[in-house]
# Entry
Amino acid sequence: MDVTKETPRSGACEECGFDWTIPLEDAIGLVEAAPARVGALFDAAPAQPPAAAPGRWSPASYLWHLVDVVRFGTERLWVLTLAPGADHPGWDQDAMAALRRYDALSVPVGLRALRQAAVAWAQAAREAPAASTVRHPVFGELTTGDAVRRNAHEAVHHELDIRRGLGES
# Structure
């Protein structure tokens, strides 16, 4: 499932169980806790994780994708605070993965990058005014709540992707 294509405002993700009606502070907490949860998955992983399943990225690639999701999410939240109503361009996740060569990047460095990105993201999420909107090229107008919950869903969903890639369910 391509989590970038869905925009529900209610219910739960069929795959990962993320509840789209989660309170905003709980959603922020999910992103803040993502580095610890993802780090624990890699700490418990076998030294040589299984190869990526067809059509899926490796666990390291999902880690680095999550780093970029949180970084781009921070920028989108800054737009809500500093330039309400402005556009924030989307990005091609597959092109970014190829450009950055996610599979060649270090897991320990990725975990540190995710920790730092989550701190900046959480600060931006708490500072963004609730009434602001940002234009997304795929989803249209996003409120602060929409932007925060989308990133929280990505954190939860990609944790599942990493878990699967490491041979867990």
